[in-house]
Amino acid sequence: MKKIKIYALGTVMLGALMMSSCGKDFLDRQPYNARPADQALNTEKDIESALIGAYAGLRDADLFGRTLPLLGDLMADNVVVSNRNSGRYIGQYQYNFTNNDSYFSNLWQDGYIVINRVNNIINAKVSGGLSDQYKGEAYAIRALVYFELVNFFARPYTDNPDADGVPLVLKFDINGKPARSSVAEIYKQILSDLDQASKLTTRGTNTGRFSPMAVRALQAKVNLFMGTNQSYQEALSLSADVIKNSGISLLSASNLQAYWAKSSSERLGVETLFEIVSDRVDNNGFNELSYIYSQEGYGDMLVNENFYKEYRDNDVRKSLIAIGVRQGTGGENPAYIATKNADVVSFGAKKVLRLSECYLNAAEAAFHLGDETTARSYLQTLVDQREPGLMISANGAALLESIISERRKELAFEGDRLFTLNRLRRDITARTSLNAANLEYNNLAYSDFRRVAPIPLVETDRNNNLKQNPGW
Amino acid sequence: MRRLFTSLFVILLLVTSVSAQQRTVTGIVKGKDDGLELLGVNIKIKGSTSVTQSGLKGQYSIRIPGDNAVLVFTYIGYTTQEVVVGKRSVVNVSMSPDAKSLGEVIVTGYGTTTKIRQVGSSAKVAAKDLEQTPFSSVDRALQGKVAGLQSSGASGQPGALQQIRIRGVGSISGSSSPLFVIDGVPVNSGDLSRVSTSSNALAGINPNDIENITVLKDAASTAIYGSRGANGVIIITTKSGMAGKTKLRLDADYGIVTPGRLNENTRPLNTTETLDLLGEALLNNPSYVSKYNLTESNVRSFLTSAHGFGIDSTINTDWYDLVTRRGKQQQYNLSMDGGNDKTKFHLGGGYFHQDGTIPSSSFTRYSGSVNLSHQVSGQFKVGTNIMLSTANMKGLLNSSNYGNPVYASFSLLPYLAARNADGTPNVSGGLSQNAGIFNPLYILGQDKLINNTQKALGSVFGEYKILKNLKLSSKFGIDYNNIEEDEYKNPFYGDGYTNGGYAGRSYTRYFNWVWTNLLDYHFDFAGDFASNIKLGYEAQKSQYYSATAVVYNMPLNTDYTVPSNGATPVTASGSQEDYAFASMFAIGDIAYKNRYVLSASFRRDGSSRFGPDRLYGNFWSVGGSWNVDQEEFIRNLHFFNSLKLRSSYGVTGNAGIGNAAWRTLYGYTRYGYNFVYDGQIGSGPSQYGLRNLTWEKTHTFDIGIDASLLKERLSLNIDFYNRQSNALLANVAVPLTTGFSGYVANLAGMRNRGLELAISGSPVKTKDFSWDLNFNFATNSNKVTKLFADNQVSSPFLRTVGENYWSYYLPVWAGADPQTGAPSWYVDGTRQKTTTVYSQAKRELVGKSPMPKGFGSFGTSLHYKAVSLDAMFYYSYGNSIFQGMFGFQNSSGAYYGSRNQSKLELDHWRKPGDINDNPVPVYGQGRNAANTSTRMLRDGDFVRLRDITLSYNVPAALLTHMKLSSVKVYARGSNLWTWTKDKNLPFDPEAGSSAVGGGTEGVSNFDVFIPKTFTLGLNVSF
Questions:
Q1: Pairing of β B823-826 and β B813-816
Q2: By C-alpha distance, which of A416, A107, A413 is closest to A290?
Q3: What is the DSSP letter of B932?
Q4: Distance, CA of A410 to CA of A407 (rounded, Å)
Q5: d(C-alpha B79, C-alpha B778), whole Å
Q6: How far is Cα B33 from Cα B250, in angstroms, rounded to an integer?
Q7: A208 CB within 8 Å of a chain B CB
Q8: Chain B residue with minimum CA distance to A179
């Protein structure tokens, strides 16, 4: 009898034992929407996934989704904030932002989030197949993000390459408290990453991803920004290569309107080398770039009247600025409304690299190298499709002004202007058409410390190795 | 596991047999209660030293000197019996359990014990305090019932979450809620919904199905729940059947629900008052005065003329009145009990409905329960407990949502017409789509927020008595919550307008199973020692499953409201999450002569929530009690009926930390991090976690006294406790260059310390009349002992080591400047100098906190013949409520003409020399008067008549021929009267005593008004 009881007991306990013996497994409840990080980058497909995730990061509203393409114009002299506004980017417009500004801290944070994503791809122990292609794209993304960060948070390379740049993080380290590397070191890394990218990236058919030609275009741009004799040579030859060999055609005058109205990404063919895709399903919603320009959205951002007047009447690009009325008490009339990014339903892609820019880069590089003929020729090819009939005949300083002016008009509302003025070490003037006497922020000398964004307070609080920019 | 077998063998070896003698008496000792043989009964011959003990089958044999011998049978927990042997050679004895020596049965973790063996600190709430209350969930009914248990709900929405905190708040980012164990099954509790403003998993349980609730407070009682014991444990035992005649019982009540409290001092203004105030404020604004040549005599016509403000002074809308209502409350419960020696059953069925105090807010529950047990043989028993319910909750938005009717009732201007001439809600002019706050009448009529929750809670169990004193039991339980939520916003007006209408549907399921195996052994030895040991193994897994669909562009009517009707799908998501626990535990005690009791418990918990480096945690407690009343010197005093000193110390854990917080992850997600790009899903780092992330740990010390004296007319419990919580989860901020902003680590600490007191007494006790009183009181003081970074501002609080975690940190309001009437603040904590520039006022720790210093209840119960009057008052003191929304209603001019103001604004500074808290109003210029400062702090002290019941038992004589065993009629009121210390506290004091996050953050949030209820009820037993 006792035996039976012990059996009974044993059976139940055995049941319990069997359940517990799978202990470790039983207690390993994996999440359904995420995988352990140490198992996330083991195959070619994993690398591809991670790369998609890195591109997705670029779309964030605080990167290419809105802040990057906006601030280059707003903080320069192309765009103003309407009297009637939603309160966004007022600090950047009026140059009274603080070191606690959320747009800059988000830009910083989101930039390094993408850098971490691509670092993991680059450092993953996977090779062969398409993984090299993917790693190449990851290198290009890293170069792009460091390029944007160093543009915002440091003086230009043309100022002092040994000045503080941004922290250089190439490998994930949760305890890392990196100091700032010099601007030169950052550029060196960007160029080295782009070299890797151009070696590894061998294919590319879609404008939403880095193709070999997009990598070259970025290389050219970075070299142009460095402003040395050698880099101008690089910029010229790389730009020439893209223009000649990419198989991509320059956006023509007749297609201009249609090109900017189109919102979906496409295969490489006309004009676009690289863009960041937002679509109807995946987008930043109210925080999309178009929402802050379109009068169907916030519509806060209007074109600086002074800038609008720069466009001559037969410039087809003038048609990309609508003249309307800003609704509401005190709203501007007339209001100059940029329509390059105006779709608030499907949102559309944000252009990062276009063939037109390659012409501008080539022209400017050639000019700095003293080859004005080549410079005029590149500029003329572009101008033919923008302001038909205009002949480029200037030389010397006037030629440079033409190049810079065309650059401003061509790349308006894409975030370029501030950085062109920075690298050329120019003052920003006539930022608004308002009564200048009252407006402390109407002009901003090159030497003004606010031309460089502050290292975010949230970051200096966490990392005492970081030196703040002068003045902040 | 192996350890378990070893222990089992040791136990078996302890069992010994008995030898025989000549002129021997033999027999079997059984228990009168269950007829089972008793092992280890002490059998002694009176007047001799000859002693033996009963064996495994209760058998004994003893040599006696002669026929006159008297055998004395003693057994712990049973009445001692003396038997004269006479001529008999076989003496079988049935011993009766001794209710008195044992005291009442005390529910503990994984079993019961007796009052005398009790070591831990716990409190019991009986069925009569839970039945037929006008509360939608049982946790609401717990308010005031247990010293040290704080039960508060921010919302009067029936079915909304109630926060329960036992002995303070013990966690920062983890859960501070106690573990709920229902019929042995640890359940998922809290708000499991995803769309509803607030919901409560416990609202699916019919309080009438509950036999009793035991609240375990100290380590000696909660450590057996290991990593889930740190916040206390609430054990709910449901009703089970009793052998005998089948009994049928019907409970019915019906009543009304009205808004609990509108403070006349802070009510919204009417049109006349608004015009007066606006006129005054305009005259104080020089630019309006000069622009429109305003004077005291023409300002009124300026306000009402079309050229001025165009206010129609003939309209006076009382928005508060329009959005509140008198609702219905009703519940019907039917139960049946019965059975025989072998099979017992309890059946219950219930219907509960309560309207919210706002139209379209309500809660309805249908429930049923079955408890069955069957004695298969002397050794083997099986049974099941099942509770099923379906609940429907209709809710509202809260906070400053434009679609929140409560917010609207305080904010909409009285001169806006609520309805058009044809009776339809007015949605033009100041109530048009883009004007701001929506007309609540339209929203209440068209938009929906519905939660349907089906709940199943059930278990099957078997118990096998291997030996009289060794029992093996196994229980498999499930806890199932199925939550369906629908949200609809009409396309014409309100929140749905911009999307052309909105329909969302979300499905959430929690399925939780638990398997518990328990070995329970008790034995007595050496005559004076008694011991009980339980060993157990438990495995649990909970699975969360969800799906969501949202569409825009709904049909242009309000009849078709499901997502299938929509044109534009915008959200489609679904996910899952699991957690698991595997545990082994042991609990044991040993008592000497019922005087001294030592107890110890141990539990080893493994959980999927813990990192692999700390996968298993050990939790333990030790405790002791001294039943002083058993000592001769106390007995001789004839003063105490019982007197017990007890103390315990132990380590418990809090595993309420997030299911995957320790993991370092790469996500494939669209929500949270969106890794989708150009139509493809990507992946990326989504979380950094520590492999050693683990439970939060609380060391609890408790010392207490339980006493009963004056022939049990007075009883008293006192407890002092100290809870030191360490390894609390806190966010470690890392440089953003890492790609992360931080991760959680076990690093913070806080301490809760307090005193609990419960007294009950019966000053009068005669045949016809009795009067009982009870009182309980608890204090708690909280102190931060460790933080990741000290002095962190989390407005309106400052987190500092050495201070209460919830310490208000605010600029100190100085009222209207006596000279200018401008708002002023003290420059610093010295309160010497004031400033009218807000930015010059330094923030100070003002020594106030939303956590009450003390709270409790007092109750009285009068019985005269068949009539009873019961009342319970709940009180709480020493907390401050932060009225975050104060600024809109008390804006000193800033929101005049756009938000209605509170009546407080009428009394303000008027001329130099005036001392007034309220600044002079200037139209359009608040001058920061409404910025965060101590002006928004209100004393939260209150006393409330929580419950009052008058009942009448129809005399039995009248019932017998009707075949009824009892009939009771009663009238019951809840929250009928409230006193607040602060006469200007605008909202219900309870509404500000609870909130999301840490649990008690003291911010009121425009939730549904907490109701008063009045019900009439009938209870009939057949």
A1: antiparallel
A2: A413
A3: S
A4: 5
A5: 38
A6: 30
A7: yes
A8: B737
Least CB–CB distance from A9: residue in B466, B575, B577: B466
Answer yes or no: are the C-beta atoms of B975 and B1013 closer than 8 Å.
Answer: yes
Rounded Cα–Cα distance for residues A455 and A466 (Å): 8
DSSP assignment letter at A412: T
d(CA A184, CA A44): 34
Distance, CA of B833 to CA of B841 (rounded, Å): 10
Per-residue model confidence as pLDDT tens digits over B527-541:
789 999 999 999 999
Q: How many CB atoms lie within 10 A of CB A258?
A: 10
Rounded to whole angstroms, how far apart are CA atoms A220 and A234?
7
How many CB atoms are closer than 10 A to CB A36? 15
Instruction: State the Cα–Cα distance between residues B390 and B367, nearest whole angstrom.
Output: 6
Would you mind telling me the total number of residues written for chain A in this entry?
A: 472
* Number of Cα atoms under 13 Å in the Cβ half of residue A372: 11
Per the CB < 8 A criterion, the answer to whether B716 and B734 are in contact is: no
Instruction: Enumerate the β-bridge partners of residue B463.
Output: B381, B473
Q: ipTM value of the model? A: 0.93
In this complex, the residue of A20, A36, A59 whose CB is nearest that of residue B664 is: A36
- Token duo for residue B889: 């209603």
Lowest mean pLDDT among B54-68, B747-761, B966-980: B54-68
Helix intervals (H) in A30-101: 44-58, 67-74, 90-94
One-letter identity of residue B409: S
Q: Hey, what are B530's tokens?
A: 């008694």
| A52, A105, A178 ranked by CB distance to B737: nearest | A178
CB contacts, 8 Å: B515 with chain A: 16, 19
How far apart CA B481 and CA B504 sit, in angstroms, is 20
Residue A27 DSSP symbol: T
Name which of B158, B143, B141, B168 is nearest B999 in CA terms: B168
Q: Which residues of B213-234 are buried (b: 16+ CB within 10 A; e: fewer)?
A: bbbbbbbbbbbbbbbbbbbbbb
Q: What is the pLDDT of residues B978-988, one digit of tens each?
A: 999 999 988 88
DSSP A410: H
Which residues in chain A touch residue B793, judged by CB atoms under 8 angstroms apart? none
For residue B674, which residues of chain A lie inside 8 Å, CB to CB?
A: 56, 59, 282
**A chain contacts of residue B673, beta-carbon cutoff 8 Å:** 53
Closest to A25 (Cα-Cα) out of B704, B394, B578, B243: B578
Mutate to test the interface with B, among A113, A166, A177 (most CBs of B within 10 A): A113
Per-residue three-class SS string for B300-314: HHHHHCCCCCCCCCC
Q: HSE, CB side, 13 Å, CA atoms: give it for residue A148.
A: 27
User: CB under 8 Å to A225, separation ≥6 — which residues?
Assistant: A147, A151, A156, A157, A158, A419, A423
Q: How far is CA B99 from CA A180, B77, B96, in A?
A: 78, 8, 9
Instruction: Tell whether pTM > 0.95.
Output: no
Helix (H, G, I), strand (E, B) or coil at B61: strand
B54-109 per-position pLDDT tens digit: 877 788 888 888 888 888 888 766 777 888 888 888 888 888 776 554 567 889 99
Question: Looking at residue B498, what DSSP letter applies?
Answer: G
Chain A contact set for B537 (CB, 8 A): 13, 16, 20
What are residue B755's DSSP bridge partners? B720
- Which residue from A32, A46, A50 is facing B577, i.e. has the nearest CB? A32
CA distance, residue A16 to nearest chain B CA (Å):
7
pLDDT at residue A343 in the model = 86
A213: burial class by Cβ within 10 Å (0-12, 13-18, 19+)? buried
Q: What is the DSSP string of B201-234?
A: GGGGS-GGGEEEEEEE-SHHHHGGGGGG-TT-EE
CA atoms of B782 and B150, how far apart (whole Å): 14
- Residue spans of beta strands (DSSP E) within A9-121: 34-36, 79-81
